[in-house]
Amino acid sequence: MLFTKTMITTGDFDALGARVEQELRDHKGKYIFQGIVFVMAGILAAAFPAATALNVELIIGAILLLVGVFQLILTLKSKMHWWSLLSAGLSIVIGIVMLWKPLPMLLAFVTLLAVFMTIEGVLELLLAFQFRPVRNWSWMLFSGVITLLLAVILWIGFPVFDVLYLGWVVAINLVFYGVSLLMLVWKSAS
Prior knowledge:
The chain has 190 residues and is mainly α.
């Protein structure tokens, strides 16, 4: 919708808003549940920021290891190109290092999180503008701005806040996204 070549008229914009609000009303319970889960996960992450940061890093390490092994098996069975073997090997090695040396890798992970949150913040802003016809769409916009600000602080503050900050960044992001979902549903359902 954002990249269409035709102009959207006010009537189209209003119709889109009505359809999105109807979708939110029809599935109100699911959106409320999702918002509450995000807020609760954020509160839990804020209560244990170091554990949150370490667990995020360990989960990603385990995923990389498993995906690498799976890719290696499929590559060997299907006799795919050599670059697929390199990709699988890289995933396995990085996964093992992340699991074997979690604290040093956690510091590197902060930089990767800054990249991710920068991209996520931009995508949240684009999503917010897509929700513009819906009342209270500004909460999604606010969440995107907060995500970008957290990314900027990560870029500026690394490694001053290191592990604790990483846990708090994840917590704040989860809470604001959950609140933005709840506010969208609340205003559209009333």
